[in-house]
């Protein structure tokens, strides 16, 4: 496999881990990092013996692919520069601050035949990846994603901060257009919505009830999926998957017994898998696991939820 020249723009809390993974992967040659905080950039660059770039424009011509891990408000302007100049882009979620910006970036990547992947990291959770031959046609989905308050994500509301992970997963699972959305939520610790509950109704009849909170005393990321042949439980945090099906026997007259199987996965490294998949997509020409179009679809749904919360 040909080695790709890579760089990371934004090496704060999350970006420094991107740099670690690029430095670790054989398919990548990490050539540099860039951050508005030069002290931070120099520290991360020294760890990997790579160049520090003060201006991300200077990376054009020096790299084949980049991770962009800057604040959401900067996603569009930074990603646009690289997509205009023939560089493949892995962009952290959410894709952009506006739908117009997201649509432009998706179109730009398609026009220039570039891989454009969005950092919905939960798609690379091993419990999710194990569902490939289990998930058939969800009928009802319930998800809870709760966490203590973290000012690092408070530049956006809980929909774009936390719930968008589950929105992306559910849209991918169901594979049907959203027919109706019913949302409620309130700000508590910040000026933005901190806790919200959303009901998504799909054209194929599936219903999803989604709750997200960033004002809890504990962390929990769970999803329950009901389909005609199974009840599926996912514990994202502990990497556990439960599959419960109707058995051949009866536990009561006329009521089938339940056959259950539980799977526990190694913690693994979802970010390494995400970046590895991005590089693999570049080499093979395959569609990214989470494409720009996927990121845009999740953002469209999140913005409709925001509209209802604002108006309601």
From TrEMBL:
Chain ranges passing through the membrane: none
InterPro entries documented for this protein: Gfo/Idh/MocA-like_OxRdtase_N, Gfo/Idh/MocA_Oxidoreductases, GFO_IDH_MocA-like_dom, NAD(P)-bd_dom_sf
Record-annotated Gfo/Idh/MocA-like oxidoreductase N-terminal domain positions: 4-120
Gene3D superfamilies: Dihydrodipicolinate Reductase, domain 2, NAD(P)-binding Rossmann-like Domain
Pfam family, one: GFO_IDH_MocA
Domain GFO/IDH/MocA-like oxidoreductase: 157-231
Listed name of the protein: Putative dehydrogenase
Organism name: Thiohalophilus thiocyanatoxydans
Record GO terms (molecular function): nucleotide binding
Top-level taxon of the source organism: Bacteria
């Amino acid at each position: 496999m040909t080695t790709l020249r890579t760089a990371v723009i934004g090496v704060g809390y999350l970006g420094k881990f991107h740099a670690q993974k690029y430095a670790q992967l054989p398919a990548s040659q990490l050539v540099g990092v860039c951050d508005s905080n030069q002290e931070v950039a120099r520290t991360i660059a020294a760890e990997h013996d790579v160049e520090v770039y003060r201006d991300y424009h200077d990376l054009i011509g020096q790299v084949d692919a980049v991770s962009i891990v800057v604040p959401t408000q900067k996603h569009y302007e930074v990603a646009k520069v690289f997509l205009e100049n023939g560089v493949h882009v892995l962009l952290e979620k959410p894709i952009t601050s506006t739908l117009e910006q997201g649509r432009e970036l998706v179109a730009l990547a398609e026009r220039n035949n570039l891989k454009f992947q969005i950092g919905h990291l939960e798609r690379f959770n091993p419990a999710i990846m194990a569902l490939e031959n289990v998930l058939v046609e969800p009928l009802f989905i319930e998800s809870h994603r709760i966490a203590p308050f973290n000012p690092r994500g408070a530049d956006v509301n809980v929909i774009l901060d936390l719930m968008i992970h589950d929105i992306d997963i559910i849209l991918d699972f169901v594979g049907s257009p959203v027919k109706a959305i019913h949302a409620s939520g309130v700000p508590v610790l910040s000026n933005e919505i901190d806790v919200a509950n959303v009901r998504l109704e799909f054209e194929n009849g599936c219903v999803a009830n989604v709750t997200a909170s960033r004002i809890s005393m504990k962390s929990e990321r769970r999803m329950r999926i009901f389909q005609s042949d199974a009840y599926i439980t996912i514990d994202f945090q502990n990497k556990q998957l439960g599959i419960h099906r109707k058995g051949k026997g009866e536990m009561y007259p006329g009521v089938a017994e339940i056959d259950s199987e539980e799977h526990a996965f190694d913690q693994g490294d979802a970010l390494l898998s995400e970046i590895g998949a991005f590089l693999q997509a570049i080499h093979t020409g395959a569609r990214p696991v989470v494409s720009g179009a996927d990121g845009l679809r999740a953002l469209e749904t999140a913005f409709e939820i925001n509209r209802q919360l604002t108006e309601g």
